[in-house]
Amino acid sequence: MNDVMLRFVHISDTHFSHDPNYNRDYAAYIPAVGTRALVEQLNALPFTPDFVLHTGDVAYDPLPEAYPVARDVLSKIKYPTYYIAGNHDDPAALQTIVMGRDDIATPLHYEVEINGAQIVCVDSNGPAEPPAGFVTDEQLAWLRALCEADDDRPLIVAIHHNVVEVGVPWLDEWMGITNGDAVHQALRPARQRLRGVFFGHVHQNLTIVRDGILYSSVLSSWAQLHAWPGMTRTTPDIGAEPGFNVVTITREQTFIRHHRFAVDV
Hints:
This protein is α/β, with parallel strands linked by helices and 265 residues long. It has a single domain (4-260), classed as Purple Acid Phosphatase, chain A, domain 2. The chain contains six helices and eleven strands. The protein has helices at 31-43, 66-74, 91-98, 137-148, 169-175, 180-187, and strands at residues 4-11, 51-54, 81-83, 110-114, 117-121, 155-159, 194-199, 207-210, 213-217, 243-250, 254-260. The strands form two sheets. The protein has a six-stranded mixed beta sheet, with no helix packed on it. Helix 1 packs parallel to helix 2 (66-74), helix 2 crosses helix 3 (91-98) and helix 4 (137-148) packs parallel to helix 6 (180-187). The protein is globular, with a radius of gyration of 17 Å. The N and C termini lie far apart (38 Å).
């Protein structure tokens, strides 16, 4: 793969809490323990990724008090890290405390260029009944303009919620973006250069291809969920290991490697 443009690590759903004892009955350890183990894994990688992409739910509840805890752990990642807000996040606290921004973007969407590739971060926390998502008309217009532009750079899109149906009733009917088809249609003009849409929220590895567009999710660093065909309710995957994905982008292809790791409790 001599034409590699960039490699990045995809992480998500760290779910920090300001309460040092916070946990759920289906999780083997508190969220901060899982993310500390994740950071150790990333910092010990035998290569240097160009960046880390965190696709949301940095905190478990949208309380500003959770973000200093998140910052203290996540700031130890040795590589540049980009964040988007999840449905559990306080976007203002995420931006000021973790991202170190003085100006608060509402919604939190932005783009950067890295090694000649375009990375676009979308906010899917528009008006919807949580945990579902929604992308506002303003953002759809912004995203559509980027995708319709005369641009030959490989494109990577990050978003928190699942955009298209994944074939699991509870994820499709309860967790996804309510106007996900509009988001997908906004992306379609760029499908020849779109190397992947990377999302979190579902606490599992999923891969979906629609109209030639790759959608890819990642495990949480805390607790995982099942997603079998026909499932109609949220079902924890008790005992499942946390993980992260390593994504390699070339001008023509996307390579995704799924990694799991153990956490010493």
